[in-house]
Task: inverse folding
């Protein structure tokens, strides 16, 4: 823009600023609401997240993981099709349950790289298989894609054709048994550390009531967004081909061999939504981000921001049910619905990653998808 | 909810924002053009380095030269050497030039199609062992009816060397320019810290994109050592005026980055992508015209349609492409039943009507009706 009347504009700004100052001055007594969280009492909110959501979810997930671990040990000790069926069932239940805690990548979980431990996908199958044969049982690098639940997806559903052949593989190749056990142990150890460390971390979390980088609400909102973008990009975007000039990547879906990608995505979206709403596993609705936005009268194009976000979650959930068959098939055979799902997921990023943090004065500090250079 | 709602500094922030934006306007001089000078040559920029791109272009030229030796009957190619060249495996590639170990073509090729290009090399190497002339169903070398040129054709009359080379103009060079270096990630890189010899990270990425254009810094005033896109831009320049359009956009964008003018940079990105797409489309028409000149000449058709298919295939490596996905698939299909993955190309199936249809459709999509017969 080229202002010919800069002085007039400056004048207007000065007047506007003055009016603003006057207006601010009046606010103390008025009932109008703040537009920012700076001096907001976040304690009840953080307590609800810790007591009613995060800890119960970890407890539930741990219990589920114990089931998986036990089923895995039983199968590995004496492989049979019956025990394989149990192992597979527990794998699926665990993968679904995992979606309810993947949003908590801060504090104790971040310390042990819990996300990388459980769900680095797509698995590098060649490396995983080679590591198994070589007995390479070092899972300390978060950058490795040879472990976690994706490894079970491959070994239980994709390594051999059919259950009999799978049992046979484990029967005849003790390296597979050893590797699978090590992968189960790795997850168990890191999950255990996370859960234990939350006992002491909880008071830190609840008492850190500012909004700055590193304070609890900022950690929570950043992690929620990071997880949400993982849903959008890794679970749907990458396979759909929208990020690769229309070339689809059907075998890069989450849980490719067990073909439960859509259920997992639905669980992840539900988890994201219920975190936003502050809903506990027992269904009780406590103080959540949604309530804060309402208190702040956060507005998006004339509509309440909370309603916009909840409406978008519903739309996403509807789009998810539209996708037919497994996601890896749908990216080629039901393109339209998959891309429509991706678009719905993308729209929500604006509300969650831009509008919500800006209203709440929370800095978004995580780096999405760092790219390589040359 | 029983929160304690306290006042915040919304208004102060608001007025700060207002003052800030006012100040920004104040700093920008009144102007219609740009507040900085765009040089007329890339050599006027300092801290420019695109040696990695130059090396890969040189590798591709060596590959092309080696592949072309198979156009003489009885000159088999080594599959191992071709694959080694594609991956810069020095010990087997027998390079003439000196290249850094880290610089290879294959890993810079669009990930989803790398294996398609491997397969082409395997197929070309296999066909090059043929000791008979090409006929339908049999791979081999075949000369033009007038004996002026000869090419190695596969059993379906396809000169696969062209699919490989022109395909990589898209999947490697155009992809790197359009989607990697001028893409969102690289164009979000730091633009403050100047590295000696390379400029800022963003400047460096821009220079790397320019490096893949394959022209001298003083282009189009000088046209020495043109490579790949540089060559075809120059050939289409008379009818498209694309040399200046492309070069000016590269110059403008680089100057814009150095002057923190990202809006102008974004304009330049779109101009580059648009013009590369037009060069590609016009060149497809050009080769269709070549095939139409003597559609019964199998070797000419195999060569020209190979070129045409490669340039049409290249159109897709552009997220801002003008051609729609449906139109694109139709064009590829008309040129021998081709797909994005090359699958089942057969130039014996291509009729004169098919070729005419490709020409007319592309001319309509790109507004080239007035020049389609001259291309």
Result:
């Amino acid at each position: 823009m080229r202002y010919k009347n800069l002085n007039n504009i400056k004048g207007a700004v000065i007047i506007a600023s003055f009016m603003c100052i006057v207006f601010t001055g009046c606010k103390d007594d008025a009932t109008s609401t703040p537009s920012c969280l700076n001096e907001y009492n976040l304690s009840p909110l953080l307590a609800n997240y810790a007591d009613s959501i995060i800890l119960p979810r970890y407890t539930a997930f741990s219990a589920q993981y114990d089931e998986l671990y036990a089923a895995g040990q039983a199968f590995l000790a004496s492989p049979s099709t019956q025990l394989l069926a149990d192992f597979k069932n527990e794998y699926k239940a665990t993968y679904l349950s995992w979606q309810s805690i993947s949003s908590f990548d801060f504090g104790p979980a971040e310390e042990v790289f819990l996300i990388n431990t459980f769900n680095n996908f797509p698995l590098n199958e060649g490396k995983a298989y080679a590591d198994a044969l070589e007995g390479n049982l070092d899972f300390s690098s978060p950058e490795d894609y040879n472990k976690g639940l994706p490894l079970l997806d491959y070994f239980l559903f994709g390594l051999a054709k059919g259950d009999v052949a799978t049992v046979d593989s484990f029967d005849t190749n003790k390296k597979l048994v050893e590797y699978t056990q090590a992968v189960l142990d790795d997850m168990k150890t890191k999950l255990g550390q996370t859960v234990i460390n939350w006992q002491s971390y909880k008071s830190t979390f609840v008492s850190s009531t500012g909004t700055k980088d590193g304070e609890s609400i900022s950690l929570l909102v950043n992690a929620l967004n990071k997880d949400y973008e993982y849903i959008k990009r890794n679970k749907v975007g990458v396979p759909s081909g929208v990020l690769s000039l229309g070339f689809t990547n059907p075998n890069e879906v989450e849980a490719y061999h067990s073909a439960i990608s859509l259920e997992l995505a639905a669980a992840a979206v539900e988890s994201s939504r219920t975190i936003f709403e502050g809903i506990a596993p027992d269904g009780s609705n406590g103080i959540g981000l949604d309530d804060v936005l309402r208190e702040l009268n956060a507005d998006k194009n004339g509509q309440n921001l909370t309603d916009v976000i909840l409406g978008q979650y519903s739309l996403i959930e509807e789009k998810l049910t539209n996708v037919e068959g497994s996601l890896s098939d749908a990216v080629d055979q039901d393109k339209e619905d998959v891309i429509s799902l991706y678009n719905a997921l993308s729209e929500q990023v604006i509300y969650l990653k831009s509008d919500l943090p800006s209203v709440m004065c929370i800095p978004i500090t995580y780096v999405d998808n760092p790219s390589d250079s040359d | 909810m029983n929160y304690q709602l306290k006042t915040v500094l919304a208004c102060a922030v608001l007025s700060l924002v207002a003052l800030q934006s006012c100040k920004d306007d104040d700093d920008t001089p009144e102007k219609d053009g740009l507040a900085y000078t765009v040089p007329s040559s890339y050599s006027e920029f300092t801290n420019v380095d695109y040696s990695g791109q130059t090396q890969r272009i040189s590798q591709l030229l060596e590959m092309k030269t080696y592949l072309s030796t198979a156009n003489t009957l009885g000159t088999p190619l080594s599959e191992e050497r071709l694959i080694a060249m594609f991956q810069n495996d020095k010990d087997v590639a027998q390079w003439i030039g000196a290249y850094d170990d880290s610089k290879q073509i294959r890993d810079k090729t669009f990930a989803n199609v790398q294996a398609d290009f491997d397969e082409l090399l395997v197929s070309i190497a296999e066909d090059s062992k043929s000791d008979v002339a090409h006929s339908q169903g049999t791979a081999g070398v075949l000369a033009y009816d007038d004996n002026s040129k000869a090419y190695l054709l596969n059993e379906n009359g396809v000169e696969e060397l062209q699919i490989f080379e022109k395909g990589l103009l898209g999947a490697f060079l155009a992809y790197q320019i359009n989607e990697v270096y001028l893409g969102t990630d690289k164009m979000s890189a730091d633009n403050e810290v100047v590295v000696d010899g390379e400029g800022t990270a963003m400047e460096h990425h821009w220079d790397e994109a320019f490096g893949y254009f394959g022209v001298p810094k003083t282009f189009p005033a000088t046209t020495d050592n043109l490579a790949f896109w540089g060559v075809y831009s120059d050939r289409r320049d008379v009818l498209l005026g694309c040399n200046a359009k492309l070069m000016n956009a590269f110059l403008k964008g680089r100057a814009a980055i150095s002057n923190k003018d990202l809006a102008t940079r974004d304009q330049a990105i779109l101009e580059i992508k648009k013009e590369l797409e037009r060069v590609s489309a016009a060149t497809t028409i050009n080769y269709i015209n070549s095939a139409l000149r003597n559609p019964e000449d199998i070797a000419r058709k195999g060569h020209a349609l190979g070129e045409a298919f490669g340039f049409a295939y290249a159109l897709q490596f552009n997220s801002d492409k003008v051609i729609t996905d449906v139109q694109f698939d139709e064009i590829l299909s008309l040129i021998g039943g081709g797909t994005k993955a090359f699958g089942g190309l057969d130039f014996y199936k291509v009729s004169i009507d098919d070729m005419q249809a490709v020409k007319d459709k592309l001319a309509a999509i790109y507004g080239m009706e007035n020049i389609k017969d001259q291309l």
Observations:
- Confidence is low (pLDDT under 50) at residues 1-34, 370-374 of chain A.
